[in-house]
Amino acid sequence: MVMQLSPGERSILAYFPSSTRARRAMEELRSAGYGTVSLDRVSRFGVEDDAEINNPIAGRAETITGLTLFSAGTDSLSNSESRVLKAADPSVSGMAAHDYGTAGGRAFLVTVVTSEDKVQGAVDILEKHGAQV
User: In Å, what is the CA distance from 105 to each residue of 4, 43, 92, 128?
Assistant: First the structure.
């Protein structure tokens, strides 16, 4: 998706250490009247989270990389060499160092688009929830 800002609009990029904090910030932003707010996961592997495939509670986890690296399952990883390499990553075992592999240790990106006069209010909300802006 390509986004182009209109004159007088600003974008704010805020990085969070957890999706829970990011979602709380998004809820507060929306309650405060900020309409264009989105959440993405930043990953060095690319992210295509498929909840239908990557749902261990429903018994639908097709691959270990689908659960840990948020791949879309076997369809997007048809190259078995790619799956083997991803499965060998320390983050898959759960034994990786704190913030392993995530730039700045903040894998969740909240993007806010707003008018110039509302930027500081959005930044205050984001930082209140632990964002790095």
Answer: 28, 11, 16, 18
User: Could you tell me if 17 and 42 are in contact, meaning their C-beta atoms sit under 8 angstroms apart?
Assistant: no
Q: What is the pLDDT of residues 45-67, one digit of tens each?
A: 554 545 455 555 666 666 655 55
Q: Per residue in 96-123, pLDDT tens?
A: 555 555 555 677 899 999 999 999 999 9
* Closest to 6 (Cα-Cα) out of 36, 28, 33: 36
- Rounded Cα–Cα distance for residues 44 and 107 (Å): 10
Q: Which amino acid is at 125?
A: I
Report the C-alpha gap between 19 and 100 in whole angstroms: 16
Tokens describing residue 22: 């990011």
Rounded to a whole number, what is the distance in angstroms from the first to the last CA of the chain?
22
- Tell me which residue of 71, 52, 74, 50 sits closest to 62, measured CA to CA: 74
Which are the contacts of 7, defined by CB distance < 8 A and separation ≥ 6?
A: none
- Rounded Cα distance between 11 and 56, Å, is 36
Of 96, 90, 48, the C-alpha closest to 72 is: 48
| C-alpha count within 13 angstroms, C-beta hemisphere, residue 14 | 30
